[in-house]
Amino acid sequence: MSKHPQDKIDFDFDRQHIWHPYTSMTQALPVFGVSSAKGCELTLEDGRTLIDGTSSWWACVHGYGQEQILAAMQAQLSRLSHVMFGGITHQPAVELSKKLIAMTCEPLTKVFLCDSGSIAVEVALKMALQYWQGRGQPAKQRILTVKHGYHGDTFAAMSVCDPEGGMHAMFGQAVTQQLFAPAPQTPFGEPLRSDDLHAMRALMAEQHHSIAAVILEPVLQGAGGMRCYAPEYLVELRALCDEFDILLVLDEIATGFGRTGKLFAYEHAGIAPDLLCLGKALTGGYISLAATLCSDEVAAGISDSPAGVFMHGPTFMGNPLACAAACASLELINTNRWQAQVSRIEAQLKAELAEAADYPAVKQVRVLGAMGVLEMHQAVNTARLQQQFVDLGVWIRPFANLIYIMPPYVIDEAQLSRLTAAMKHVAQALTANAGQGTEQSTEQGAGFISHG
Questions:
Q1: Residues 361, 320: contact at Cβ < 8 Å?
Q2: Looking at residue 448, what is its pLDDT?
């Protein structure tokens, strides 16, 4: 139980007044009160502990209560928690930018520090449009992407999310109409299918004069279905962008910093983007921060545009407290043997989830790096399954027809086995309902994972 009466959560007030992600204020999903967290465990207000299988939406890769990150934040808090970035700079921002440039591929030399993943995408798309203004091609204003993508909830980001599973229909003409090619079809680990980019090439050939950039999630599409595709797709896409004079934007907000088994997912393909969006694990999940990186060429084009400057500047841009947390998180990435951690998680997930492929309710089992997915034949009841997982002592939040985990890299073997055992237990229980249509998602926006 909570030790301090003032810490007791007023669930009635929460239900009546506080929005939660993708939920209704009149038919709210149940919420569970968390009082503290340590390592890979969340402690509920009633004293129960849950093994976290989501890394708090893929962000807390080092677990909770990580002393090095907390110490960096406490030291920075006592010196300078926030200062405007306009006309001012500070050491945490400089140090973080140096680290990001050193960690990413060679063409990326300019860093824009912003508030959240969705804003990092907004920044990248605005950069692409301003770049072409500076290069004397202002007609290049459209963005090309692939179906089943997810890039955030702000308006430009929404416009490049999946046109059917995203929010285009409900916001109508307020969402800019972009161009969509079919999603990559070649599974990860298989040779690229010869026709996988035919539609992409056709769109570029027909409309490259109006296309400013292509944006997509490399290798792993997240909220669009946890789809893993062949890295060779990116190799061919990079070549097409070069051929048709189109910028390539990679959204690594969810995949960056080791999640797929490479430090950045684009490394699976050995390519370099023109712009790169980062977030989530950037600070280890301790405070919101994101970044958009671009090449010298892109920066020069923006500077040559009629505005002469890049037209974006959030109030909390380059926040020193967040930058200090990010510097500590990246130090842990560099020293914590993340490759061995992720490799161990991947091997255990493959071994322990394999049998679920034979369950009648399970359509497919997918594992890539520190990510494991049971794709069901039909949508699941989010609220019901969430309660079942809590009863089993784990925090797993399914969406649409997916039961998935993205655990912290520091998870131990026994904790990970608890997560996979819970996934299999719930999937087996669903088997009795397979094909009867009794399991439906009740969560609005169940196909989304926040880029905030």
A1: no
A2: 53
**Beta strands in 340-415, from DSSP E residues, in sequence order:** 362-367, 372-376, 394-395, 402-405
Q: How confident is the model at residue 169 (pLDDT cuts 50, 70, 90)?
A: confident
Cβ neighbours around 327 below 10 Å, total: 23
User: Using an 8 Å Cβ cutoff, are 334 and 349 in contact?
Assistant: no
In the predicted model, is pLDDT for residue 346 greater than 80? yes
Quote the CA–CA distance of 209 and 449 in Å, as a whole number. Answer: 33
Q: Which residues are annotated as a binding site?
A: 57, 117-118, 150, 251, 280, 313-315, 397
What b-and-e string marks burial along 372-388, b requiring 16 or more CB atoms within 10 Å of the CB?
Answer: bbbbbebbbbbeebbeb
Dump pLDDT digits (tens) for 231-266: 999 999 999 999 999 999 999 999 999 999 999 999
Distance CA 110, CA 342 (A): 29
E strand or H helix that includes residue 198:
helix 198-207
* Residue pointed to by tokens 């255990």: 348
The upper half-sphere exposure of residue 163, i.e. CA atoms within 13 Å in the direction of its Cβ, equals 14
Could you tell me the pTM of the whole model? 0.95
The catalytic residue positions are 22, 150, 251, 280
Q: Provide the annotated binding site for pyridoxal 5'-phosphate.
A: 117-118, 251, 314-315
Residue with tokens 């039909």: 378
- The sign one gets for the Cα dihedral 129, 132, 137, 142 is negative
Question: At residue 5, what is the residue type?
Answer: P
In terms of C-beta density within 10 A (0-12 exposed, 13-18 middle, 19 or more buried), how is residue 408 classed? buried
What confidence category does residue 438 fall into, taking pLDDT thresholds of 50, 70 and 90? very low
Averaged confidence pLDDT in the chain: 94
By C-alpha distance, which of 243, 314, 292, 307 is closest to 125? 292
Q: How far apart are CA 409 and CA 444, in angstroms?
A: 30
Q: Which residue has the tokens 């990246």?
A: 330
Q: What is the DSSP string of 418-443?
A: HHHHHHHHHHHHHHTTTTTT-----S
Our measurement of the distance from residue 393's CA atom to the centroid of its chain's CA atoms, rounded to an integer in Å, reads 25
- Kindly report, residue by residue over 260-302, the tens digit of the pLDDT: 999 999 999 999 999 999 999 999 999 999 999 999 999 999 9
Which residues contribute to the annotated binding site for substrate?
Answer: 57, 150, 280, 313, 397
Q: Which two tokens stand for residue 234?
A: 């990116």
| CA 54/CA 419 separation, integer angstroms | 10
H or E element in which residue 142 lies? strand 142-146
Task: Answer whether residue 449 shows pLDDT above 90.
Answer: no
Three-state DSSP class for 139? coil
